[in-house]
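Entry 14. Structure prediction run on the chain below.
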Amino acid sequence: MLLVIPLVLAAAVVGALGLVLLRKATEAEPPRSGFSLPLLWLLIRHRPVWAAGIGAVVASFALQIAAIANGPVSLVQLVVIMELPCTLILSAALLGGHLRTREWSALAAMTVGVTTLLLTLAPAGGNSGSAGLATWLVGLALSVGVIVGSLIGVRSTSRPAVATALAGVAAGLSAGLDAVLVKPVTAAASAGLGDVVSTWQTWVFLAVGVCGFFLLQNALQAGRLIASQPGITLANPLIATIWGIGLFQEQVRHGWWLAGAALGAALLVAGVILLSQSPLLEGHREAPDDLAAASR
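Output returned:
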C-alpha cells in the first residue's frame, strides 16, 4: 500500500509526457471531427514522436496497473488527476513557454484539492470479487451507455467547443472504466496466467482499452485541449470512484468529512478548468508541410 501513491505519481508524469508528445504529433493536422485510420497510418509512418508518445502512454498505464493491484481504484484514479499539471509543466519545458501566476495558482489549487480529498475520504479496502455478474453487466451497460451518449453528442452538436468537450468526457470515461476492469484482472493474475485468460473481464479490458485509445486520439484531434482536457481529466476518477465505492465496496469516510471532501472537489475542479485554459497546453504547432509532403 505504501508504494501506491509513488507509483501513481510516476504514472501521472509519464502519462503527461505521452500526452504532450501525442499533441505535438497530431497538431500539424487541421482539427477534424474524429481520428481516422488514414491519419493513424500517416502518424505511424512519418511521426516518430507519435510512437514515443504512445510508448509513454503504455508505460503510464503499466504503472497504473501496478498501483491498482495494490490499492483502491478510487484512490489511484484520483491521484492520476495530477497528470494535468504535469502536462502543463512538461509542455512549458518541451514546447516552450513560461508558467505564469494563473498556472501556478491553478496547480496549487489542484494539489490542495487532491490532497484534501485523499485526507478526508481516505479510500481503503475494497474487493472486486464482491460484485456479481448481474451487477457487473448493469454497471458496464450504464458506463458504456454514457460513453456512447457523449459520442452521439459529439456528432449531433454544431458547436465545435461542445463537441471537443464531449470527446474529452468520452475519453476520460473509457480510461476510468479500463482502470476499473484492471482490478479483477490483477486479482486473477495472482492465481496464474490461466486464470487471467479465463477471466471474462480480461477480454472486456482489452476491448475497452483499444476503444479508449481511439477515443483519446479523437479527443486530441477534435479541437483545442482547452475544451477536451477537463473531460479527460475529471471523468476518469469520477467513474472509477463510483465503481470503487458502489460496486467494489471500497470504504470512505462519511459525516462531516464529506464537507471537507466537497471543498477539495471544488478546488480540484476550479484548478482543472483554470489550468486547462493555459495557452501552454496548446503547445507548438509544427508546420503541416511536413505531413503534406510525406503523404504524397
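Residues 23 and 220 are 7 Å apart (CA to CA).
Filed with the rest of this week's runs.
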